[in-house]
Structure formats: structure tokens, C-alpha cells
Amino acid sequence: IVLLKGKTAVISGGAGARGIGFATAKTFAAQGARVAILDLDAAGAAKAAAELGPEHVGIGCDVTDKADCARAIGEVLAATGQIDILINNAGITQAIKVWDIDPESWARIQDVNLKGVLYLSQAVMPHMRERKAGAIACMSSVSAQRGGGILGGAHYSAAKAGVLGLAKAMARELGADGIRVNCVTPGLIQTDINAGKISDDARVKILENIPLNRLGVPQDVANIFLFLASDLSAYVTGAVIDVNGGMLIH
Ligand code: NAD
Q: Does residue 132 sit within a domain?
């Protein structure tokens, strides 16, 4: 069965060929969706969309800028006429100790990972509320649940924990309009965000604590986003789905 036939999906942070966002875009396109990739890297977004096929669009967007989110969503609507799905995937991390977090680092990590989820969600709300339909899925992290401890700092854990609260509150407020909001909390997924940052020794130690005995790949997360974006999850809202190989069982 094709799960997203006739649907249009906006995916933030989908420019990187080895990232979770692009894997999600590819998966959605294969399931019949028309995809709009939004990324700070405008050229990368356009290239990624072109790789998926001519009906897909790639648009530059800084999710930390509310006006830019509104502009980008306006461009998507002008091109596609509808948005059924929003995947808030854009994010950045920084591996520093809590005592080294300065105001600029704190602001940058909160802005992209947390404020960006609010602004891009707000940008699709008028359209989704008018149509009384929509599925929004947000990228959190196991770091939010266990307090970091792999690569991100405390400011990253705080931002990703904030995403859980924001998404649950949005789920509560938007349910009456037929809009579902859910989160994923991935463990360690092999992408550019951590490439080259894990030594062989560290990898062995990490694997000791992963019952499924492997690191995650972008497709593992893309498959869960597919579930949350499709009607298979029609009665699921405010949920958090772990995608961590059992690294955290709770
Ligand atoms: P990635 O670096 O490939 O993807 C992040 C994307 O976000 C990049 O394309 C980047 O250009 C984009 N981006 C950054 N700032 C932006 C901004 N201001 N506006 C718009 N786009 C912006 O890495 P990834 O691992 O695929 O990360 C995707 C998401 O998954 C992130 O939110 C990350 O925190 C989260 N995550 C990753 C892991 C992991 O182990 N890889 C685990 C848990 C959560």
C-alpha cells in the first residue's frame, strides 16, 4: 500500500544527503507524497529536492526566523496548494560541558532546536486549522530523556526536552482542529551530526548498552516519521516514540 498518496509534506533540515531529514523526504516521496525540503542551506535543499524528482521543491529557510518561516511556507503553498504534513527535523548540537555554556551557545542551540519548531509549526497552523487536518511530527532526542551523555551538551538536552513539552501542548490545543502532533526520540543515529566524533573505543562502549547491538541509521527514524505522518497513526497525538535500539527502556 502507498501511505501518503495525494499528500504534501514539509520537512525541515532535509538538505544533507546523509541526514535523517533527507532519508525522510525520500521515504515520503516513495510513498506518494509531494515533498518540500526546507533548509538553511538553500542550494542544498534545491539539490536534494531535484534528486527526488521534478514535483518536489527545495526552499531556503532559517527556522529561527519567524518571518522567514512564514515566507517559506507561503512559497510551498504557492507551489503545491496544500500542506498535510510537517516534519520539524532541523537541529544542531554542540558537545560542551555545562560549565562552558555561554549565552551565545545557549541561544543558538535553543533557537534552532526549540524555537524553530514553534515558528515553523505556527507558519502551517492557519492552513491546517482551516482545512481541519494535519500531522506534525517533531524531532526530540534520547538526550532529552536521559540527560545527554553521548554527544550533545546540557543546552541540547534542555532544548530537546523543551520540544517534548511544546509538542504535547500543541497536540492538546490543535486536536480539535484535526491536527495531530507527535515526537520521535532517536538514540545514536549515524549522520553528519556525529560523523568522525565517536572513537572506536567509545563505539564499543556505546554498543554494550544498546540491546539491538547496532547504531541507528537515518532510515530507522524516517520509518517512524512515516508512521506518524500517515493515517496509520490517525488516533495518535501527543505521543513520543523512542527509536533507540533499546538504549533507553523506560
Ligand atoms: P544533519 O546535520 O544532517 O541535519 C540537520 C539539518 O538541519 C542540516 O541539513 C542543517 O543544514 C539544518 N539546519 C541547521 N540549522 C538550521 C536552521 N536554522 N534552519 C533550517 N535548517 C537548519 O544531522 P541529523 O543527524 O540528520 O539531524 C537531524 C535532526 O535529528 C536534528 O534535529 C538532530 O538534533 C536530531 N537527532 C539526531 C540524532 C543523531 O544521532 N544523529 C539523534 C537524535 C536527534
A: yes
Give the CATH number for residue 126. 3.40.50.720
pLDDT of residue 195: 86
Residue 13 CA to ligand 1 center (angstroms) comes to 6
ipTM of the complex: 0.99
Three-state SS for 39-96 is ECCHHHHHHHHHHHCCCCEEEECCCCCHHHHHHHHHHHHHHHCCCCEEEECCCCCCCC
pLDDT digits (tens, 9 = 90+) for 38-85: 999 999 999 999 999 999 999 999 999 999 999 999 999 999 999 999
- Give residue ranges with CB within 6 A of ligand 1: 12-13, 15-16, 19-21, 39-41, 61-64, 89-93, 112, 116, 139, 141, 186, 188-189, 191-194
Domain assignment of residue 126, yes or no: yes
**pLDDT for position 118:** 99
Residue 1 domain flag = no
Name the 3-class secondary structure at 221.
helix
pLDDT at 197: 87
Q: How far is the CA of 90 from the centre of ligand 1 (A)?
A: 4
Within-domain flag for 40: yes
How far is Cα 236 from Cα 73, in angstroms, rounded to an integer?
25
**Counted domains in the chain:** 1
Q: In which domain, by residue range, is 170 found?
A: 8-242
Least Cα distance to 136 among 44, 237, 63 occurs for 237
